[in-house]
Design brief:
The chain is mostly helical. Among the domains are: about 5-70, no CATH class; about 100-180, no CATH class. It is about 45% helix and about 0% strand. The protein is built from 10 helices and no strands. It has helices spanning about 5-15, 20-30, 35-40, 60-70, 105-115, 120-130, 130-140, 160-180, 195-210, 215-220. It is rod-shaped and about 85 Å long.
């Protein structure tokens, strides 16, 4: 069966312009042959204007002639072959930000600078579609709207998705960790031992009470 965009209107045209049988038209238009007969009798789709399937690229004149010559012939639609599927290329460069949301970018920049210093300026610029000059202006508080800039995460502002943000932060954190390791910087120093603190306090109390008897205690003024 064919996938006809306007089956009843196509049936109207085939009834008016060909000698195909009701069954042939019904099979081609995915309609019951009695419904096609109702269209021919004027009981169905009254005043409906016919649509030419040949002009629409759904049927050929040759197929119509074959069907008219043989009442048992099933009409075949034109197969449209797609030579090449065009896939969307990965976007390069900075993200496009709608005009309505461009005023929110300084707030997103402030959020990155405050909460995720491991993210580079280039990464910030790419994920929210801003410039390094704007990032520096927010960082140096020389931005014209510095008084009103507040750190707000870019997902809340609609500048990126949560998945994109998590992926960026993960990559930036891993890169910073590797750079710190190469530079010999580590944050795994732990806390200083405190096992000597308690004994020192006990020794102090013991020394302060040496030579103190009950008589001396109660005779103190």
């Amino acid at each position: 069966m064919a996938n006809i965009l306007m089956p009843k209107a196509t049936a109207v045209w085939l009834i008016d312009n060909t000698t195909l049988t009701f069954k042939q038209i019904g099979d081609f238009c995915e309609l019951h042959h009695l419904e096609v007969q109702g269209i021919a009798d004027g009981d169905v789709a009254q005043s409906m204007r016919g649509v030419d399937p040949v002009a629409r690229g759904e049927l050929t004149r040759e197929e119509i002639r074959k069907g008219e010559a043989d009442s048992n012939y099933s009409l075949k639609t034109i197969e449209h072959k797609v030579d090449k599927i065009v896939t969307q290329q990965k976007r390069k460069g900075a993200r496009y930000t709608p005009i309505s949301r461009r005023g929110d970018r300084p707030n997103a920049i402030a959020w990155f600078l405050y909460h995720h210093k491991e993210v580079s300026d280039a990464q910030i610029s790419k994920i929210i579609g801003t410039t390094k000059a704007t990032i520096n202006a927010v960082r140096d508080r020389t931005h014209w709207d510095s008084a009103n800039i507040k750190p707000v995460d870019p997902v809340t502002l609609g500048l990126c998705t949560q998945i994109e943000l998590d992926d960026l932060i993960s990559k930036a954190s891993e890169k910073r960790r590797k750079m710190d390791e190469e530079a010999g910087i580590t944050n795994d120093q732990g806390l200083a031992p405190i096992e000597n603190e308690a004994p020192e306090e006990e020794d102090t109390e013991r020394k302060s009470g040496e030579g103190l008897t009950a008589e001396n205690l109660f005779n103190l003024k």
